[in-house]
Design a protein that fits this description.
The chain is built from 2 helices and 25 strands. The protein is mainly beta. It is globular.
């Protein structure tokens, strides 16, 4: 004889990464909703060139580390010189009184001792893996085959893994893998009769943005991939042909990057098990206030160091494991933080 066992659902959504489009799924993978920050207001600041491409914003009033600003966030100024206001500035380092930033579109800031109160805000919203208070989100998914009038609806779909890939040149892609509970409907009419129309946001390209490794902008990286694994599990029970629940385990983050060999920075970090930080900022264009997304890994360890041997520039490839940060030096106390200007 042959009998069906316990039913389950799995599937994936693959696309080109764009602001806001996948923020719900990213939040579900990190088990925390995106939230807006308050930034810092009423500041007296001095803006100066710290050596290309880094600028410093020094505050004579207030404490940056007491605000909700974090390294790896994009911020914008208001109340400063007109040449400095409204630009996307990526925070690459932070102390109580100094923000070190780069202008994301490669532009410049004017030296400025602001006479009026300056505000620093982080556009959009951010999320990270929390230590407590995790969300547990699932989705109902309909696949509508218009040409044959067939609707299939599955329930209990949870994000299990996320893969974000940046090639050396080209569009940034995102892959979301789901585990679900059951097929609950197979009919000839639509279940969602008035779904929200597909968005038309611009997509991210690898050449637009910045990559910061250990506080230093890097221009030699040829590829980067980041993976989030929620480690979902489910158990069958006697007397039911569907699994009653799915539980997630420890949320793990890892990845890999490749870079043209120009020194021993990454080889030394691998050999010495040095913990470094990685910040990736993506933009939809070169406008001062272009839409953006940032991915911050406060603490990673490199696990491998391999080099090619072809008739081309030597490229070293490094896998890495992300670890939970301790919340010092202006970083979030988590394994990963993501900011989305359109979330």
């Amino acid at each position: 004889d042959l009998r069906h066992g316990v039913r389950s659902v799995e599937g994936s959504i693959n696309g080109e990464l764009s602001p806001g489009t996948y923020s719900d799924f990213i939040a579900a993978a990190l088990a925390r909703d995106f939230t807006a920050g308050t930034g810092a207001t009423g500041l007296t600041v001095n803006i100066s060139d710290a050596g290309a491409p880094i600028y410093t914003i020094t505050s004579t009033t207030g404490d940056f580390t007491a605000s909700d600003l974090k390294v790896g966030q994009v911020v914008r100024l208001s109340g400063a010189k007109a040449a400095n206001n409204g630009k996307n500035l990526l925070i690459v380092a932070m102390t109580a009184t100094v923000l070190s930033v780069i202008v994301l579109n490669g532009g410049t800031l004017a030296n400025d001792l602001a006479a009026t109160p300056v505000s620093i805000t982080a556009p959009g919203k951010a999320t990270y893996i929390p230590s407590t208070g995790h969300t547990d989100v699932s989705y109902t998914v309909e696949e509508w085959y218009n040409d044959i009038g067939q609707s299939e609806v599955t329930t209990g779909n949870k994000v299990n893994t996320v893969g974000i890939s940046l090639p050396a040149t080209g569009l940034v892609t995102a892959d979301f893998a789901f585990m679900g509970k059951d097929l609950v409907r197979a009919e000839t009419t639509k279940f969602f009769t008035n779904p929200t129309a597909q968005g038309e946001d611009r997509v991210f390209a690898s050449v637009s943005g910045a990559l910061i490794i250990d506080g230093v902008p890097v221009s030699l990286v040829t590829s980067l991939s980041i993976n989030i694994n929620k480690n979902l599990t489910s158990e069958a029970v006697v007397g039911s042909n569907v699994k009653p629940t799915m539980e997630y385990g420890r949320i793990l983050v890892d990845g890999e990057f490749s870079a043209m060999l120009s020194g021993k920075q990454f080889a030394d970090a691998f050999r010495d098990e040095k913990e470094i930080a990685l910040v990736c900022a993506l933009t939809t264009g070169t406008e001062n206030d272009a839409q953006f997304m940032t991915i911050t890994l406060p603490r990673i360890k490199i696990n491998s160091d391999t080099k090619n041997d072809g008739e081309q520039a030597i490229v070293s490839t490094h896998s890495f494991q992300a670890l939970k940060g301790d919340g010092t030096k202006g970083f979030v106390a988590s394994t990963i933080m993501i900011q989305d200007s359109a979330a």
